[in-house]
């Protein structure tokens, strides 16, 4: 099978990921931070090492700024619900995934105001438009760094500066970009960054995290046992304990650490270069077909290796089905959990086919994909 | 090492657990329910099979009543916060873990009233006391089925009947009992049951779930992408999608399914019998020492294989440290995330040593533990 659904989750994972997980479940299977015995201490070390790896990878100041979550959606919900109160105003963009749009929409019914800044036809917002949308009660600006539909990369550095100057919290949804593009929380002036473990970081599902800038305090999404400060019914104030109640996914976190190590050792620049080469091949190949409409930015520097397209006259789901059944090529079709972005692209009715790349894809696979598309088009005539 | 910290997490896990996990991460690494391709469909099947296994194991009516979570704490937070609104009243017991007590306490600061029903000196509540505490605005009764500190088993069947008659939701925290005692949601008249995957079900960390009786609708803890109904910004209403936003932990859930299968094939009665034999040996052994005070019920039928104790004149943490370093025996010491229960037992200051058993423990291990305790006592004199 040729797997081109890496924006959903990268596949395969580096062998080191499973090896790390196997070691934990077989040899380090205790509950971290709950007991004093050595096996528990060792399990605690797994969490610590995961945090160590992540904080330095994203350029944070200290490991305690990393809150481990079960996925990016949990991180986004914690960030959004943890900082907004009724009466607050929040700004999102028309390129957001439902993991941002739905929590904001839910808060909207509970007295939080929000505005949606519209992207252009390539799916890119203007930082200036964010600035214009900031009001006296604006507390949070949430921007998807790169679109899971069109791959459009937003001018997050500019937005970060604007937010910092305006004294507004800036939340970056890095679901599609961490491990894919160079990333530094300080350069972005980000107060919070949500990320999955199982996409560009090549970790297992069930992992993710939230970078929370030191000093920022959120209302926890969940209260419960934290191992420390057991004597009080009040949730502890210290980070990350405040936000990590319940037994941690040590097995997954060990895998995530191995994934981040894989990315760090290759170097994000190297990964970016390789994926850009594949992306360029895919885009130029698709452009040869008059019947194909590709969405998102033309400029390779403004996009991720995520290509949404339609074949005119063909249903997106049907194209995906043929790619899967006839050509053994896995892509995603449908609405990609991003109705706002589809509305921006004019594809809310039709949906789109999405082919997304990872470091493990090859030029041969992309060429095979292009030949399959060509055959599907030819069959039509 | 002799591992007697199974109430924190069971260790080891059955080999089938990691074999199932390995198969998923190596061969079925796609994102479930997000795409139409076969690898994604296969990943979706993992979730379905996990739900199938769990619903029948607990005697639910249909698989959709099982909401998969990252641990029991998340399930408890979803249940408690999802059903209580300001002005509602809620009843908990003095034996609750912080994963129940802390969310309730947090809601208490937001206008939810609550009462704590006190247990007796053995850590057991009287169902009658729950009945007395029910008020006109009582919406929820939350009871820990079995204590993680003293192993005290509560009369949940009686409480369930009382709640059903009073039209009050009944939430059972089965963190210590699922897989350990026979369990049937209908027999308990439970509306919700929270459980971890990594304790009595022998699954990996990062897994758990909430049984939510059909027809009951909660406010979700998290909104986001659900794979289905992508076109709307409103969180879908259907169960379990409504509560499972974000990428699922397919690897963990495959492991959990294998764990439940292990338990189901052995039979909970058989597991209970074996653990009761070990428990009996441990309790009668500890009783021989005048210096040892054991907490919790005397009657074996009213308790779990979880034994909290102190050696008079010795600090609990010190005893745990010696057991670990000198005898290579892992127990837990401290407050066990259950300050309410410690207050009931009179051990809030001292803490306690806790030895907890699993199916994998042996009589030889228990005897070795008893010899170690004897040596520690002798050294004192």
Question: Can you put this structure into words, describing what you see?
Answer:
2 copies of one chain form a homodimer. Chain A is α/β, with parallel strands linked by helices and 381 residues long. The first copy, chain A, has 2 domains: 122 residues, Aspartate Aminotransferase, domain 1 (Alpha-Beta Complex); 252 residues, Type I PLP-dependent aspartate aminotransferase-like (Major domain) (Aspartate Aminotransferase, domain 2), CATH 3.40.640.10. In chain A, 39% of the residues lie in helices and 15% in strands. In chain A, the strands form 3 sheets. A 7-stranded mixed sheet of chain A has the order 2-8-7-6-5-3-4, sandwiched between helices. A 4-stranded antiparallel sheet of chain A has the order 9-10-13-12, with helices on one face. The longest helix of chain A has 21 residues. Chain A is globular. The model of chain A has no long low-confidence stretch (mean pLDDT 96). The interface between A and B is large, with 86 and 86 residues.
């Amino acid at each position: 099978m040729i797997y081109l659904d890496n924006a959903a989750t990268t596949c395969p994972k580096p062998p080191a990921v499973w090896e790390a997980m196997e070691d934990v479940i077989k040899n380090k299977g205790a509950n971290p931070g709950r007991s004093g015995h050595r096996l528990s201490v060792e399990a605690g070390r797994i969490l610590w090492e995961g945090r160590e790896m992540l904080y330095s990878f994203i350029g944070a100041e200290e490991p305690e700024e990393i809150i481990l979550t079960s996925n990016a959606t949990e991180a986004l919900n914690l960030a959004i619900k943890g900082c907004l109160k009724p009466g607050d105003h929040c700004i999102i963009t028309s390129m957001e995934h439902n993991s941002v749009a739905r929590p904001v929409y839910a808060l909207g019914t509970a007295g939080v105001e929000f505005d949606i800044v519209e992207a252009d036809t390539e799916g890119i917002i203007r930082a200036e438009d964010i600035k214009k949308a900031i009001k006296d009660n604006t507390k949070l600006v949430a921007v998807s760094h790169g679109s899971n539909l069109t791959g459009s990369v937003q001018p997050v550095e500019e937005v970060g500066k604007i937010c910092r100057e305006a004294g507004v919290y800036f939340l970056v949804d890095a679901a599609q970009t961490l491990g894919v593009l160079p990333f530094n929380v300080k350069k972005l002036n980000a107060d919070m960054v949500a990320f999955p473990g199982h996409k560009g970081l090549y970790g297992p599902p069930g992992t993710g995290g939230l970078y929370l800038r030191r000093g920022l305090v959120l209302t926890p999404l969940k209260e419960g046992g934290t191992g420390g400060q057991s004597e009080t019914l009040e949730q502890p104030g210290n980070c990350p304990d405040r936000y990590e109640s319940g037994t941690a996914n040590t097995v997954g976190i060990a895998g995530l650490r191995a994934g981040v190590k894989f990315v760090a050792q290759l170097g994000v620049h190297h990964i970016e270069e390789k994926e850009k080469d594949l992306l360029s091949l895919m885009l130029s190949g698709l452009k040869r077909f008059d019947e194909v409409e590709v969405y998102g930015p033309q400029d390779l520097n403004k996009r991720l290796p995520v290509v949404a397209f339609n074949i005119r006259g063909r249903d997106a789901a049907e194209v995906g089905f043929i790619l899967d059944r006839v050509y053994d090529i896995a892509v995603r079709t449908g609405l990609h959990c991003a109705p706002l972005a589809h509305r921006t692209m004019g594809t809310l009715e039709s949906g789109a086919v999405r082919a997304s790349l990872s470091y493990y894809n090859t030029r041969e696979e992309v060429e095979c994909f292009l030949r399959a598309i060509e055959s599907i088009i030819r069959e039509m005539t």
